[in-house]
Specification:
By secondary structure, this protein is an alpha+beta fold. It has a single domain (2-363), classed as 4-Layer Sandwich (Penicillin V Acylase, Chain A), CATH 3.60.60.10. The protein is 24% helix and 30% strand. It has eight helices and 22 strands. The protein has a nine-stranded mixed β-sheet with strand order 3-4-8-9-12-13-16-17-18, with helices on one face. A six-stranded antiparallel β-sheet has the order 19-6-7-20-21-22, with helices on one face. A hairpin with a 7-residue loop joins strand 21 and strand 22 (360-363). It is globular and about 50 Å long.
């Protein structure tokens, strides 16, 4: 009975992480080049050492490093998962210790991404995650068999018998986050983001291929793909499935400047080249353009920025993300994080809750 409670509860956890927005923990501490701002300038603070202990960077923003086998290759070899419930079954049986039930709230989210090169031909990928105030976790993953990556997770609305998500052990927090990324970049410069689509239809591919859910698809791409072509090929080898009744699409970009939207229309995967992705369909046909008015507005603002400035450095991309941050619109939501990924150098800048004068800097390499 307790196991069933755990399964159902963690199911709610993963579902929230997807759409509002491993083995044993590896041994040994590593370092990330993190600068924790201490003023209103963008100068870097001294490097901090991160291990498997969750580090609080700011109110509502934390980070953790994970090294070793998180069990994801075994997850894939077992056929993946056709639902969040199957992901949870795997995590509970293979990874997580017993815990009391988890609970959460549920809501929609909006997102914007932009892909561009700087004057030195470095590829830059920017991403806004729009939601209401929440807790975010940055995860630097160093797997035994796969590419190192940095990804971001929304851990809000997660509790254990009324306690916060942070009451889980640090290793359990890290493992859950590894199976629930909403965006990220790997050491090869492959960047990916999942964005919600306003559509009542669902993705439910059903062939003899192994299965993936949205966030496990992101984990797959971060671990295994180095280019957009490789990412599209990998996605084509799996059946994709919706969760919690939401439609979605992926923004995928690589260090060579290729950028696409990957969408599913009538369970057919359709790939469209585009440097900007918000929350509307790109695929030609009856669904093209389906989305909210604000999604279209954010898309037009970012496309205009690309027209006016053919090359952008990381600060320029930050400014573009700021121009479509939620404080520019009259609603209750917030841009909880903005991430600027340098796909050539491996550097990542995070900005928290639209405070674009302070940044947290990581470097995968």
């Amino acid at each position: 009975m307790k196991r069933k409670c755990i399964l159902c509860s963690i199911l709610l956890l993963i579902s929230t992480l997807i759409f509002v927005s491993c083995g044993k923990a590896g041994a040994g501490a590593g370092k990330n080049n993190i600068s924790v701002p201490n003023s209103n300038t963008e100068s870097k603070a001294p490097e901090n050492s991160l291990s498997f202990k969750v580090t609080q960077l700011a109110d509502g923003l934390s980070a953790v490093k994970y090294e070793g086998d998180c069990g994801f290759n075994e997850f894939l070899s077992n056929g993946g998962a056709a639902s969040d419930a199957e992901v949870i079954t795997y995590l509970t049986e293979k990874v997580l210790s017993d815990a009391d039930g988890l609970s959460f709230g549920k809501t929609n989210f909006g997102c914007s991404t932009i892909s561009v090169k700087d004057e030195n031909e470095n590829a830059i990928f920017g991403r806004n995650f729009d939601w209401e105030p929440c807790n975010a976790m940055i995860v630097h993953n160093v797997p035994q068999n796969g590419y190192s990556s940095i990804s971001t997770v929304n851990t809000d609305f997660i509790s254990i018998s009324g306690k916060p998500f942070s009451s889980l052990s640090d290793s359990e927090q890290a493992v859950i986050c590894l199976y629930a990324p909403l965006d990220g970049m790997n050491e090869k410069g492959l960047a990916v983001s999942v964005n919600m689509l306003w559509d009542k239809d669902l993705i439910s591919q059903n062939t003899d291929k192994p299965n993936l859910t949205a966030t496990t698809a992101i984990r797959l791409l971060l671990d295994k793909a180095a280019t957009v072509d490789e990412a599209v090929s990998l996605l084509g080898q799996y059946d994709m499935h919706s969760s919690m009744g939401y439609m979605l699409h992926f923004a995928v970009a690589d260090r060579y400047g290729n950028s696409v939207a990957v969408e599913y229309v009538n369970d057919e995967m359709i790939v469209t080249e585009t440097p900007v992705v918000t929350n509307s369909y790109f695929a030609e046909g009856e669904k093209q353009g389906l989305g909210t008015k604000q999604s279209e507005e954010r898309y037009n603002i970012l496309m205009k920025a690309l027209t006016e400035k053919k090359t952008m450095n990381m600060e320029d991309v930050r400014n573009a993300l700021s121009s479509v941050g939620r404080r520019n619109f009259d609603d209750y939501k917030s841009t909880e994080w903005s991430a600027v990924f340098n796909q050539t150098t491996g550097e990542v800048h995070y900005y928290h809750r639209e405070n674009y004068s302070e940044k947290f800097t990581f470097n995968i390499k």
